[in-house]
TrEMBL record:
Keyword Signal set for record: yes
Domain EF-hand, chain residue ranges per copy: 43-72
Protein name: EF-hand domain-containing protein
Signal sequence extent: 1-23
InterPro entries tied to this protein: EF-hand-dom_pair, EF_Hand_1_Ca_BS, EF_hand_dom
Signal is among the record's keywords: yes
Origin superkingdom: Bacteria
């Protein structure tokens, strides 16, 4: 049973990762997609600027992207980017990312419910809820003394 649950949790995280990966091509290609999550990482830099996909970013390749990137911020096309344009562009991406994350989290809540509703009758009884709680508790209480405390080595359930 323990094994079955960790498999479904694995499946869950694999699902989460594939949803994120599928969301990536939705980006403009000009601005690092998902940069809000990955920050200033080299990976984000490479995926944004390595346009010919040879695993290297030459300074020419880098500069070639900067112009269109600046243009993507310049919403009124006057060749300059004011603060509002810059923040609006970011806000648009942020809201898209949050909407995708929200959808993913809700899908995961449905998956978790499926795991909790053991007999799949679309009602989670207290007994079913407690079964899941017992598994959680017993995984954390790794020395099996009936108490979860610093003497238990398990870091997660
Ligand atoms: Ca402008
Ligand atoms: Ca049920
Ligand atoms: Ca314990």
């Amino acid at each position: 049973m323990k094994r079955a649950i960790s498999h479904s949790l694995l499946a869950l995280s694999a699902f989460a990762m594939s949803s994120t990966a599928m969301a990536e091509p939705g980006g403009t290609g000009l601005v690092p997609s998902g940069s809000s999550a990955r920050g200033h990482s080299k990976d984000a830099f490479m995926s944004a600027y390595d346009t010919n996909g040879d695993g290297k970013v030459s300074s020419a390749e880098f500069i070639a992207i900067r112009g269109p990137q600046h243009g993507s911020f310049d919403l009124n096309g006057d060749g300059k980017v004011d603060e509002e344009e810059y923040v609006t562009e970011y806000k648009t991406r942020l809201e898209r990312d949050l909407a995708e994350r929200r959808e993913m989290q809700l899908k995961q809540a449905h998956v978790r419910y499926g795991v909790l509703d053991t007999d799949k009758n679309k009602n989670m009884t207290l007994a079913e809820f407690n079964d899941s709680g017992k598994r959680m508790f017993s995984r954390l209480d790794s020395n099996k003394d009936g108490v979860v405390d610093q003497n238990d080595g398990a870091e997660n359930y």
